[in-house]
Amino acid sequence: MIVRIGIMALRICVVLALIVGILLWANLIPDGIVMIHMLLGLLAMIALWLLAFGIATAAKGRNMGLAIGAFVLGLLLPIVGLGQLSWLSLGSSHIVIQIIHLLIGLGAIGVGEMIAARYKRNNKLA
């Protein structure tokens, strides 16, 4: 049950954060919406950690490596996300930081999907 809730929350949060992030990146919405983007990112991190906890404590198919990777990736989300607020003043390299942040977010959904699939396969969830 924890994995089902975690993956659905992760999917919703990442998709919404991606939409808001792209709109912010393209300057199509006001900068005040950044707080919503940050909240969605925080919720995505919590959902990813929930999935990591689920796979780390699974009765069958426990995978500590995947759990640790998900935890580290979840930790990188706010570090890079919040860090880019100060790093963006670096000049022309700010696009690289934004792309790295985007890739970490996409990596979070990928790792979350891997955890959910592995958990489902090992525990025969419908």
Structure notes:
- It is built from 4 helices and no strands.
- By secondary structure, the chain is mainly α.
- It has one domain (2-123).
- Helix 2 (34-56) runs antiparallel to helix 3 and helix 3 runs antiparallel to helix 4 (94-123).
- The termini are close together.
- The mean pLDDT is 89.
Entry summary:
The chain crosses the membrane at residues 7-26, 32-52, 64-83, 95-116. The protein is mainly alpha-helical and 126 residues long. 80% of the residues lie in helices and 0% in strands.
Distance between the termini: 11 Å
Overall, the morphology is elongated
Largest sheet: none
- Whole-number mean pLDDT: 89
What class would the helix/strand composition place it in?
A: mainly alpha
Query: In percent terms, what proportion of residues is strand?
Result: under 5%
What structural keywords apply?
single chain, 0% strand, 126 residues, mainly alpha
Topology of helices and strands:
Layout: H1 2-25, H2 34-56, H3 64-87, H4 94-123
Helix pairs in contact: 1-2, 1-4, 2-3, 2-4, 3-4
